[in-house]
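Co-fold these.
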Amino acid sequence: MKGRRAAALLVVAGWSGTVGGSACGGPPAPGGSLTVVSWGGSYERAVTEAYIRPFAEAHEVAVGIESYNGGLAQVRSQVEVGRVHWDVVDLEAFDALRGCEEGLLEPIPPDFLPPGPDGTPASEDFAEGAISECGVGNVFYSTIYAYNDRLIQGEKPATIEDFFDLERFPGRRGMRRSPLVNLEFALMADGVARDEVYAVLDTPEGRDRAFRKLGTIREQVVWWEAGAQPPQMLADGEVVMSTAYNGRIFNAQALESQPFVIVWDGQLLDFGQKAIVAGTPNLENALEFVRFATSAESTARVSGYIAYGPVRASGLPLVSTHVETGVDMLPHLPTAPENERLSLRMDTAWWTDHLDEMNERFSAWLARSP
Amino acid sequence: MPETVPHVVFRGVSKTFDGVTNVVADLDLEVGKGEFVTFLGPSGSGKTTCLNMLAGFVAVSSGTILVHGRSVEQVPPRKRGIGMVFQNYALFPHLTVAGNLSFPLEVRGVGEARRKKLVARALEQVRLQGFEDRRPSRLSGGQQQRVAIARALVFEPDLVLMDEPLGALDRRLREELQYEIRGLQRRLGITCIYVTHDQQEAMVLSDRVAVFRAGRLEQVDTPEGLYEEPQRSFVARFVGENNRIPGVVEELDRGLCTVRAGSGRIRALRVVPDAVGQPTTVSIRPERIGFAVAPGSYRNEFSARVEDVTFLGDHLRVTLSVFAKRDMVLTIPNTVGHGGVLPGDEVRIGWAATDCRALDCEDDGP
Amino acid sequence: MRRRLRKPALALPLVAFVLVSFIAPILLMLARGVHQPVVRDALPETLAILDAWDGLGVPEEAAFAAAAEELRAADEARLAARIGGRVNRVRSGLRTVIVAGARTGADGAGAGSARERLLAADPAWGDPATWRALRTAGERFTLRNYLNALDLDRGADGAVVRQPEERRVYVPLLLRTLGVSAAVTVLCLLLGYPVAHVIARAPARRARWLLLAVLVPFWTSLLVRTTAWIVLLQQRGVINDLLVWLGLVDDAARLTLVYNMTGTLIAMTHVLLPFMVLPIYSVMQGIPPRFMRAAESLGATPAQAFRRVYWPLTLPGVGAGALLVFILAIGYYITPALVGGSGGQLFSNMIAFHMETSLNWGLAAALGGILLAVVGALYVLYERTVGGENLRLG
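Predicted complex below.
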C-alpha cells in the first residue's frame, strides 16, 4: 500500500564527490538538480538504466530518484503546502488527468516533444491519447491474466472466457480489488466484442451485466492490491490463475523461471505518463528530462529491462533483447503486433467520468458477501 | 477450660525457598485455644513465613502444622477458616466498607439477611458504624485497620492471624489499637497469632511471646518470663533494655558462677555456661543496679564514674564506666535525694547475684 | 498573581503544539467536508440564476448564456476540468459534458445562441438533471458529503433519499468495521489478559524478556508482519502444510485461513495485541499479591477471587486496552486490505481511497468526521458505563 518510500540518490559521472551535489554542501552539479519519482521495484530499475542515468550524464544534472506507490496524495500535499521537491513523476493515465484538472501538474506543450528518429512529428508518433494536457505517455503496460502451468493439468486456458470458466478450469483466481479492468474483462468474457466494451459499459444494463458476470466467479476470487502480489500468489499456489501486470509475470518467468503462462487474449492496454509537478523550481530541467525520457530511443531502451512497450510507433522497431537474459523482448511486449491484436485500450476518459461511481458500486458489491 | 488438643501445633517445621538455606528451621510450637501468641523478631527472622505457612500461602518444606489436631498441608487457604489481617490492610479498593466485610460471607454463601446482621455487628465491634458506604481510600489509616480487623473477624473464625497490622500507624494510634485488639480477642475468645518486630507491642498484647532469630525459636515465654528470665543473650537484648558484660567463666557452682570481666569479677546466675573457661555474656537490667550503695549491700559491688545523666521525668538514666565497660546504664527512680548526680562523680554501684544472668556469648551483638 | 499565572503558562507550549499540530488539522479537515467553494467561485452568475430556478424544466436562456461565458473563462484559467470533476461527483458522467461545454463556449462565439452551442457540444445540456447537478456542486456550504457518507442523497425535489441499493457502501462498511473491531478487541482481550498476567507475576528478569517479546511486533514493519501472516496462513502455507503433514486436514481440503475474515481477524489481532497487553500489564503490576491472598484467606475459591477481586481491579487496564484496540482497529486499513480478501475492505480503506486516489477530499473529510463521531460516541458511552476514573492508559 501507500507507505513504503525509498530514496536513492544517483551519483553522476562528470563531477566527483558528494552525493546529490549542492544538497550536501559539495560542489553543485553544473546542470543543476532534478528529482524524479517512479514506482519502485523492477520498473524503477529499468527507467534508471534506460534514461535517468544517461540523462544525468549527458546534461550533468544531479538526479535524485525517489520511489512511491502511485496516487496523487503526495503531489497534492507538496503543491498545497508550496514546498515542491518532486519534479518529474511517473503517473498512471488517470492520475495525470485528475492531477492536471486539480492544477497539481504543469501543462506540457505537445510541440515541445521530440520528433521520431525518422522525423515524424511527436503528435503523430505517439499512440492515440498518450499525450494529455499535463501528461506525456512513455510506456505501454498491460493487465493480462496468467496461469501457473504446473497447477493446471490437461487443457490450458487460452481466452478471456476461460478465466471466468470455473467448470473447465476450477481453482481460485486472483483479481485486482478494483472495478478497473475487471469490468472490461467480465464483459469480454460475456461475449461483448472488444470494440463495443465501453459502449456497453456506458449503459446501466451493461454495467449490471458486467457485475453479474463477475458474480459468477466471486466466490473463487482472491483480491490483490499491489502488483507484486499476483506472481507471489501464483507461485505459492494460492491461486491457479490471476490477473496481473504483464511485466511482473515476465520477470517471474525470465528471472525466476516460474512456470507461468500469459494469456494475451483480452489484455487491457494502458500507459504510464510522465508529468511535472506544478510549481517546481527545476522546471527547465524537468521539461528537458521529459523530452529526453519520451524520445523513441529512451522508450525503446526501457523494454530491454522490463516487458513494457514504447508508446511511440517509432520506438517499437528499436526494441532489442533483454539485457540480463538476452531474450528477444518483442514477443513479450503487450504492443507486439500479435499481442496487440488481442488487446483492448483502456478508455481513460470513460473511467475518469465513472470511476467514483464504479468504485462505490464495486465496494458495495464486495461488501454484500454471498 | 483447657483442651487436650492445642489449637495450633508446629511440629519440626522447616521452610526453604532455594533448597539451601532454611528460612525457618525445625520449629516446634504449640498455641493453645484462646491464647494470644506473638511472633517477635527482627525482619528476616522467619516469623512472617511461619504465619504464611499456617495461613496456607506458603507450603511447608518439612514437618507438619496441625490445627485442631489435624494436619493442614492439603487444605487450601480458603478452607482453613483462618481470619487474616495483612500488613497494609489489603482492603479491596473497589468495594465499600460493607462490601469488604460481606465478601467473606458472600463467598461462603451466607444469606443476605444474616450477612447484614454480621456486617453490622462487626462494624460495631470496631466502632465504625455509619461507615458502610465509604470506600477504603476515604478512610484514615486507623479506620482502614479497623475495617481490616472487622473483615478478618466477620465470618467468625476461631483463629486470627495478624501480620504487623499496626506497622504503618503512628505511635498514639498504635497504642490505642493494641488495646482494642487485645480487648476484642479476649471478648470473643479467639486464638490469635500476631507478628511484630516491636517488643513493646509484643509485651502489651501477648499471653506468650515467641522470639525468632534467623529462622529458629530462641525462647517462648510469657512477657514476664522473657523479661525476667531470658534464656539467651539475644532475647535479653531484644526484650527490654539491658547491660551486657562480656567475660570468661572462672568458677562454676550449682546455681551460680563467677565471671571475669576485665578487672572485675561478677557473681551471676548460671544459665548457659557449663564449663570453666567458656566465654559468656552477663546480662543485667538497668533498674536492678543499686546506685551509691553502702559497701556490703550486694554480692557484686564496683566503683564507677558517672559519664552522663539524662532526666526522663519519672526516672533518671545514668551512664557509667565500670572496669572495662564504658556504657553501663542504670536507672534511678526520681525520688528525693537523687537530684545531685553529675558527670565525673565517683560512685559505688552494686547488684545482687540473682539479678544478673550468665548467658551465651554473643557472637554478633553490637 | 504572577505566581498563579506561571504554572498554566508552563503548559502553553504543549497546548500550542497540540492546537497547531492536532486540533487545527482536524478542524481544517472537517471544514473541507462542508466547504466547497471551487464551483461557486468560478460560476457566480450561472449559479445565481440557478438559485432562482425551480429545478424542474430546462432553465431559461440566461442560464445558458452565463454558463457558456463563465465556463469559457474557467477554461482559460485551466479550471474547466476541475469544475467538471466536481460536478461529476454529484452525477456520474458529467465531467465530459462540462468540459465539452467549456470548449464550445471558447471557440463558438457568434455561432448561434448559447443554448444551441451547448446543446451541440453535448445533448446532456438539455437535461434538467445536468443543471441540478451543477447547482448542487455550486453550493458553497454543503452537507452533501455527509449525506453521501451515510449513503444518502438529495432527490430532484431536494428531499433526502437513500442511495440506490448498489451504491450503498459506507453504512454497511461502517457496521462491518465496527463488527470486525469488536471481534478483534475481544480476541485481543482473551489472548492478552493471560499474557499480561503472566508477565506481571513473573520475576523481574523474565518479565523484561516477556515484555520484549510482546513489543517485538512493534519493531517490525507492518507490511513485513502482514506478509509473514500470508506466508503462514495461505493454502500452501506453513500452517496448512503442517496440518496436512500431521494428517489433521486432507490435502484436498486445506483450510482457507487468509484472504477472508479469518485472516483479517488473525492478523489484526496480532498487530494490535501489544496495545491490549501493555495497559493491562501496567495495571496488574500495581495490584499487590496480598489482595488475592486476602481474598483466599477470606474463603474465596480462586475463581471467586478472580471474578470478585482481581478482575474488577484490572478493569481500568482492560478498559484502556479495549478502547485503544477498538479505536485503532476502526482506523486500520493496511492489514485488512492485504489479508482480508473480498471482506477485507474496511471503512478507513475508503477514506484512504478518497484521499489518495479519487482526491475527493470533501467526501474523505466527511467519512473521517463520521468515524471521529463514532469514536467520540464510543468514548462517551464508555465513560457513562465503566466510568472515566477507571481508565488507565499507561
